[in-house]
Amino acid sequence: MTADSPAAAAPRYDDEIVKKFLLATFIWGVVGMLVGAILALQLAWWPANLGLPWTTFGRLRPLHTNAVIFAFTANGLFTGIYYSMQRLLKTRMFNDTLSNIHFWGWQAIIVSAAITLPLGMSQTHEYAELIWPIDLAIAVVWVLFAVNFFGTIAVRKVKHLYVAIWFYMSMVITITVLHVVNNLAMPATLTRSYPVFSGMTDALVQWWYGHNAVGFLLTTPMLGLMYYFLPKAAERPVYSYRLSIIHFWALVFLYIWAGPHHLLYSGLPDWAQTLGMIFSVVLIAPSWGGMLNGLLTLRGAWDRLRSDAVLKFFVVGITFYGMSTFEGPMMSIRAVNALSHYTDWTIGHVHSGALGWVGMSLFAVGYYLVPRLWKRPLHNEGWATAHFWLATIGIVLYVVAMWVSGITQGLMWRAIDDVGQLQYPNFVDTVIKLVPFYWIRLGGGLMYLSGLVLMLVNIGLTIAGSRPDQAINPSPAPAK
Amino acid sequence: MSHPDNNSPQSPAPDSWHRRTLEHKSALFAVLTTVAISVGGLVEIVPLFTVSAGPQAIAEVTPYTPLEQAGRDIYSREGCVQCHSQMVRPFRAETLRYGEWSRAGEYTFDRPFLLGSRRIGPDLHRLGGKYPDVWHYEHMKDPRSTSPGSIMPAYPWLLEDRIDTADVQASMTALSTFGHYTQAEIDAAPAALAKQGEEIVGRLRQSKVENIEADHEIVALIAYLQRLGTDGKKAIKDQVAQTERAQGEAVAAGSAQ
Fold first, then answer.
1. Rounded CA Rg of chain A
2. Across the interface, do B43 and A257 touch by the CB < 8 Å criterion?
3. Is the pLDDT of residue B257 over 80?
4. CB distance A431–B120 less than 8 Å?
5. Which of B24, B116, B178 has its CB closest to that of A159?
6. Spatial CA neighbour of B37 closest among A257, A363, A332, A218
7. Are B29 and A169 inside 8 Å of each other by CB?
8. How many angstroms separate the CA atoms of B127 and B140, rounded?
9. Contacting residues of B for A234, CB less than 8 Å apart
10. Which candidate in A45, A124, A206, A439 is best for mutational testing of the B interface (most B CBs within 10 A)?
11. pLDDT value of position A399
12. Mean pLDDT in each 10-residue stretch from start to end of chain A (480 residues)?
């Protein structure tokens, strides 16, 4: 039952690559969220744009979104995938060289993004801003990762594929398709290109990409991590195998249809808008299937939430997944979208998914892995609990501030007076009203970020082996 | 008790149909996943390339001039789209604030599209012609001089940096792949850039702005902002006038009988 014990018969797994990805995850996490905090400050206090071209909001926001999606989240996914798939398939990764090219190639891509985006080199497609030479590099590195991934599956020592692997596979396949199609472009110079599709078609292709980057990078592989790490941490089997089958196939089939909900009331043909809205609403079912399968896996283990930081993070993460996959479909209903679109409500929604679901789940994976990878107890368990509360309260402040600010502005935009004229004809009036909420949002974000910094310090001190009882406790089994 | 490492989620027994037919056959699993994720995209995107289901073209909507295209590239570079949408929705409150709601055919030459997703500032799709050129000059230099309380950063470097003719021609060459420009237009770009630039500089001079020349980036950006939504607005106006004329004739014909 103790699969992590170094039994002689067990295959030797490549855990060095897992360590590298893990450190990259949380270091880039700090960078990405720090940029986010700067952006939050710029909205509350415009002089923070600093009067320099490369520090203005318009150039930095893509750096924030790309950093948290492709540097923090993607590295976190790779951490969990490299660790779990070797164990689930009872084999070392197919090729260590490919693993290392994947790691260093990916970090090089992140660095090149961090240089080019502030310089204003952008394709402007959201979450696909990177210029065409970097897009080519992403395609190459991703395909090498796919070869390594499917190669590992091909040389597996067990017959069947566990549910986590299905979700990882859906990511590898779908991201390839999305990235290639959405970045089809004609280069003009080394740093500028024009997309093959124009106008509304370009918009639809972009949101097919954008929505499913959320679906197949921030959702399905995260569920895969949940299916591996949550049962391991809870020492309980997954609640329902049958439910995992149904919600996997329903999720991967339905998700891809939902993109047009980003273009409601636009020039996109009505039938496409309606399809996007209907499939978004239907998405609640498979999303909540995953949430319930996660939460019910904890049946009989709820008491351990009091002492186990890993489970604490997971439970809040999965709960936020349930909440944001309820909120998203609601916002896809035209009547609600008429109010929420273009406002901070969307920003709040995204962050309840990114900070709540993705962030908290990756923290859970991190706290699970660090003692096992470095084979020593976590430097300070109390800090992990402090991190949990900083993060949880930070998210709540952030999301509530954005709900209030989004709904406030949406209502002010549409307010009509008695004689049928705009009640707030001066747009700036609807902006000044939001500034207090921008300060609250900054406070929440800084709490979340400071929790992550605490985690990074905790990890560093664990690796340095500074815990005094470590010498008398050389067991590779993690502290619980 | 089973754990993920033992590859046995709780139930049912490991010889389920799904396990035998799919989980043992990774290639088949991958193929079926690919099919599952392809259907939605194909059904929604492919019809847009047909004449009947795709965006309806509007004859009055034509490509951007070389200077406007240069301005559009600056708009992309500065990330204006992060805070400003270019899509007026068909609601009374929006048409009151911004003007005519946006039609699909207006974006024919928008590569990339710049609809935006968040209005930290106002929508810009009907900005063309709304303010004089000098307003944009002052606004980019110091947003609070024209819009007190604005949280927009200033863009003073646009008043100093200059566009590069060869760079604009490179953009036009790439866009000519999609039929935006002919080779003759690309060759004539230097003259076209100078001509439209001088017109804007002339208007700025009348407003006592002396230090700006035709190849300053601010001039290109003003050209683009003043073009925004104007083709569509004209087309919609013409169409409304035509419809009213037709209705008037029908009424006249009806009363004559």
1. 22
2. yes
3. no
4. yes
5. B24
6. A257
7. yes
8. 14
9. none
10. A124
11. 98
12. 46 93 98 98 98 97 98 98 97 97 98 98 97 98 98 95 97 97 97 97 96 94 98 94 95 96 95 96 97 94 92 97 97 97 98 97 98 96 98 98 98 96 97 97 98 98 77 44
Does B150 have pLDDT greater than 80?
A: yes
Tokens of B70: 């240069």
Under CATH, which number does the domain A16-463 receive?
1.20.210.10
Chain A neighbors of B19, CB-CB under 8 A: 160
In whole angstroms, give the CA distance from residue A122 to residue A103.
24
Say what the pLDDT of residue A469 is.
Answer: 57
Q: How far apart are CA A452 and CA A28, in angstroms?
A: 11
> Is A242 in CB contact (< 8 Å) with chain B?
yes
User: How far from A442 is each of A395, A417, A439, A454, B16, CA to CA, in Å?
Assistant: 11, 33, 5, 18, 51
Residue A4: the pLDDT is 47
pLDDT at residue number A309: 95
Q: Give the tokens for residue A207.
A: 């949101």
∠ Cα A435 A436 A440 (to 5°): 115
d(CA A97, CA A111): 21
Band of residue B16 on the pLDDT scale cut at 50, 70, 90 = confident
Calculate the alpha carbon distances from A237 to A75, A97, B166 in Å: 27, 34, 64
Number of residues that this document lists for chain B: 257
Q: Which residues of B touch A187 (CB under 8 A)?
A: 174
In chain A, residues with a C-beta closer than 8 Å to the C-beta of B58 are: none
Where along chain A do its domains lie? 16-463
pLDDT for the residue A15? 97
Chosen for mutation from B77, B139, B175 (greatest number of chain A CBs closer than 10 Å) is B77
Q: What is the mean pLDDT of residues B70-86?
A: 98
- A57 and chain B: CB distance < 8 Å anywhere? yes
Kindly list the residues from chain A whose CB atom is less than 8 angstroms away from the CB atom of residue B157: 53
Separation CA B28–CA A115 (nearest Å):
41
Q: Are B45 and A208 in contact (CB under 8 A)?
A: yes
A47 class by beta-carbon count within 10 Å (0-12 exposed, 13-18 middle, 19+ buried)? exposed
> Could you check whether the bond before residue A476 is cis, i.e. omega within 30 degrees of 0?
no
Give B244 to chain A, closest Cα distance, Å: 24
Question: What per-residue confidence (pLDDT) applies to A2?
Answer: 42
- Give the C-alpha separation, A20 to A32, whole Å: 18
Residues A286-303: pLDDT tens digits?
Answer: 999 999 999 999 998 899
pLDDT at B65 over 70: yes
Q: Does A131 touch chain B (CB under 8 A)?
A: no
- Residue B113 is which amino acid? F
Nearest-Cα residue of chain A relative to residue B169:
A188
Distances from the Cα of A34 to the Cαs of A31, A220, B12, in angstroms?
Answer: 5, 26, 46
Question: B38 Cβ partners below 8 Å, 6+ apart?
Answer: A177, A256
